[in-house]
Amino acid sequence: MTDSNVYRTLLESTRAIPWRIEWATMQFTYIGPQIEELLGWKQASWLSANDWADRIHEEDRQKTVEFCISQSQQGVDHEADYRALTSDGDYVWIRDVVHVVRRDDGTVEALVGFMFDITERKQAEEKILQLQHELEVLSYRDSLTGVANRRMFDTLYPVEWAKARTSGHPLSLVVIDIDYFKQYNDHYGHVQGDACLRLVAQSLDSAASRSQDLCARLGGEEFVLLLPSTDAATARSLAERCRKLVGQKEIAHARSGVGRLVTISMGVGTIIPGDQDDPSVFLDRIDRRLYQAKSAGRDRICDVEA
């Protein structure tokens, strides 16, 4: 067996797919027969660089072709990951490792390389990214009630504050506290207390129904609604809707000081932030209104300073 036949046998016995393209004609002078098993396209159908480009997934085609041409023109060896189309309409992730063959005068003579099937690796990477995304979502979600948590509120509040200051649109906050919740827990137990928190959270979340609205649990029995582009009248109306929705749940509370059902108290405020305004000061102001509502008898809304 000649040396060339030995080399060909070695190349064609690997899982990697060898190939060569002449730079002047952009024609394949060789591609390994493994290409047919991997992609389904006949070995003889790989005639030119256009056949290679046409068999790249349309979402990857332009950037891959432009990158490879640019690198090759500069005589730079390179690698490219892309989705190659199979003959039956599916795709396989390919890593193309390209070596630029140059003449003595530095001009490009040919491109040679290997195609590797990296589908399993890509699927594993995508699974990891998916899991990372799910963990990130969970890190912003209150595990008990399913609404956003304090971390999410602390992240979005300054963003919405800055947007309101720039746009001149009103920003509203509603801070909510479940009335006599300690007495509820003491009487019914923490399992029932957790169920109560979930029911209240569902009511509040359904009231803040726009995609830009945020319902978050600040901690314990305290919640907040972050309402971008919401004026004072609308915020007050939404707070009243929250109070009614919680009432409609008819959650029994034998130790409440304001009736026999679970109720909520709320502080409400609206601002068009100016350069001198501070988001933490505004939040403190709404907290004070909440405690004014509680001091005034609970099961009510306070939207003005005492």
TrEMBL record:
GGDEF domain boundaries: 169-306
GO cellular component, one term: plasma membrane
Catalytic activity: 2 GTP = 3',3'-c-di-GMP + 2 diphosphate
UniProt superkingdom: Bacteria
The enzyme's E.C. designation: 2.7.7.65
Residue ranges constituting the PAC domain according to the UniProt record: 78-130
One of the GO biological process terms: negative regulation of bacterial-type flagellum-dependent cell motility
PAS domain sequence ranges: 3-79
MF terms (GO), sorted A to Z: diguanylate cyclase activity
Transmembrane segments: none
Stored Pfam families: GGDEF, PAS_3
InterPro entries linked: Diguanylate_Cyclase, GGDEF_dom, Nucleotide_cyclase, PAC, PAS, PAS-assoc_C, PAS-like_dom_sf, PAS_fold_3
Matches recorded under NCBIfam families: GGDEF (TIGR00254), sensory_box (TIGR00229)
Protein name as it appears in the record: diguanylate cyclase
Species this protein is from: Duganella guangzhouensis
